[in-house]
């Protein structure tokens, strides 16, 4: 995913982060069955809150769930492997962002 698209997606997710999604909303957003979302949330692969007795997810979880679903379906990946790969993708994106910030700060000097 291009850096600008990633930044735009992240900015949108942060903007929408005040709104939570139900399990069904998240399932629709990533074109998966509610059981798929529930299983990954129960296993701790997707972060959600079940304090009120029903699952609630932040908008940033949509991005993670879509990546995991894509990895599982495209590569027939085990859910834990898809989650680990998604963790690494997120870490690489964060490191690239930090590197760009450092480069920008260094060139301003």
Assign the CATH architecture: Orthogonal Bundle
Point out poorly predicted stretches.
Answer: none
CATH names the topology as Multidrug-efflux Transporter Regulator, Chain: A, Domain 2
What is the class in the CATH system? Mainly Alpha
Largest sheet at a glance? Answer: 2 strands, antiparallel
Q: Looking at the structure, what is the overall shape? A: globular
Relative helix content:
55-70%
Widest sheet: strand ordering: 1-2
**Total number of domains:** 1
The run of helices and strands is HEHHEHH
Would you count the extended β strands for me?
2
Averaged pLDDT = 90
Molecular structure report:
The protein contains five helices and two strands; from the N terminus they run αβααβαα. It is mainly α and 109 residues long. The protein has one domain: Multidrug-efflux Transporter Regulator, Chain: A, Domain 2. A two-stranded antiparallel sheet has the order 1-2. Helix 2 (23-29) packs across helix 3 and helix 4 packs across helix 5 (79-107). The radius of gyration is 16 Å and the shape is globular. It starts with a helix and ends with a helix.
